[in-house]
Specification:
Blueprint lengths: L7 E9 L19 H4 L1 E2 L2 E2 L2 H10 L4 E6 L3 H4 L2 H12 L3 E6 L10 H4 L12 H19 L5 E4 L6 H9 L4 E2 L21 E3 L2 E3 L4 E5 L5 E5 L7 H13 L4 E6 L5 E3 L7 E3 L1 H16 L4 E3 L6 H5 L12 H16 L4
Parallel strand pairs: 1-4, 1-12, 1-15, 4-5, 5-6, 6-7, 7-9
Antiparallel strand pairs: 2-3, 8-9, 10-11, 13-14
Helix pairs in contact: 2-9, 6-7
Amino acid sequence: MKRCQAPTQVSITIDTEFSIAGHFSSPELRKPIAEPLVYGQTASGQQGLGFMLETFSHYNTEATFFVETANTRYFGDGPMARVVRDIQQAQQDIQLHIHPVWLSFSDDRAEAKFPRQDSCSGQGYSDLKRVFGVCIDSFKRLTGKAPVAIRTGNLQADSTTYKVMHDLDIRLSSNIATGIFKPCEKKLQLDSGRHSIEGVTEVPVLTYQDFDLFGKQHQKSLQITSCSWPEMKRILIKARDLGIEQVVILTHPFEFFKSSDSSYRRIIRNRVNQNRLSKLCRFIKDQDQDFASACFGNNLETWRHTTHREKLLKVPNRYALVRKIHNKINDSIWYY
């Protein structure tokens, strides 16, 4: 089998965001949610962001937090500024996550003009460029620097999205996870690797192929909350054996705790997902000759000047079966 000389890079990416929480459909009953969705505070500590930062520190893991900042139009700077400070103090990478829907709360009529929806795909160039410009300015204000990479909300993007990023001097992105959202444009239907799109280097979340109980092929993007640890380990080892240079994994802080209701008033840790992240970080550290964690901020120059296309990984259906059973039990049993 083909073996690459340098360690396979594993990029753990965390979409760090607040939630509209159904406010537009029921404004009197539902209010947007801020810190509880990120921190998952319990009597025994933070089960979300705090747990993640402690785990990364313990295993010397580099990760990239894609932080959404347009929510300041509703919450003000305070809540997300606190999140940013915690990530910065932990010396983890911070890049920009864009959810345009938050601009609907803006007092600026030009900003609020963007439709009350949340896709960066299918939008006009000028409107999208204005949205991205506003979000970049908010990011600079909260972090003290410009982003070098962007991830669009709901992993939705099209060619216009990349043209806007290029014209705003953004050179890296991770907007594609075909197992979550498959772009209409063939050239954006990418499962892994690094690809130049409109002058921007796209680094997709790794998507692999498994099979359902009836043997039908199914594409799935690599996520902590939906992929079992044996499945993740199998994918990493297979990627290494095939000489794949980079594996991008997606997660969110709220995946590491459970809430009994939509208001996040009663929270416990999500033991299954926490164990998956811990095992992943331990594996990378223990197998440091073959694997290395890698963030976007530290790899701008290398990634922006190199492209490569990888083969679609395939996982036997026994992994899918075990994963589905495990996830169903975890979702159904509160104290599992």
